[in-house]
Amino acid sequence: MTEFNDLSSLTRYLATRRSGSPRAMIAPGPDAAQIREIVATALRTPDHGKLNPWRVVHVAGDQRDALAQGLTQAYRAEKPGAGRLEIEAMETFARHAPEMLVVLFCPRESSKIPLWEQQLSAGAFVMNLLHAAHARGFVGGWITGWPSYSDMVRNLFGSAPEQIAGFVYMGTAGQPQEERPRPEFDAVFSEWQPSLR
Question: Which helix (H) or strand (E) holds 171?
């Protein structure tokens, strides 16, 4: 059986890194000091132009009911015919895992750095949040889904032109993790063959 997020060495960790399922996370999650350490670690993300085109909003445990209300209001506004199961899914989304960070992509549109590079940096920042959580013995999961693409949901945390890069859930694995399919090496790797004329 694979041991995921093996912290015996950096190479073992990277070779066994596995996100956790937010719906299967249980307490404990990182405390306030550990959350600060996790975010501070992620600040070391590559960032062309030193723009920090991302920011983080912590949603505390006692704020999850308010988040569930905000998500369901936004969902109903966009999908007035939403059924009970769809609404329950939004409520559940708000309550996964002991801890939640919302990462916002904050484009610096006046910068000469292309927006694509800024987006790449935001994605790398989220990945580093996961690494930092795993390095402290927790599991982390990065979720997008419908809430990440809703302007009304985005407005709960920021404003245009910001976008939600994802919801990062953190806690303790509540059940054994299983491997998921990974691409075959040769399907994604090739040697460059220059075509000189």
Answer: strand 163-173
Single pTM value for the model: 0.94
Residue position matching structure tokens 């060495």: 9
Round to whole Å and give the CA distance between 103 and 168: 7
pLDDT at 196 over 70: yes
**What phi-psi label fits residue 50: left (phi over 0), alpha (psi between -120 and 50 degrees) or beta?**
left
First to last CA, the chain: 52
Give CA–CA dist 68/169, Å, rounded. 15
Give the model's pLDDT for residue 69: 98
**DSSP 3-state of 181:** coil
Classify 35 in phi/psi space as left (phi over 0), alpha (psi -120 to 50) or beta: alpha
* DSSP label at residue 160: T
Mean local confidence (pLDDT), 38-59: 97
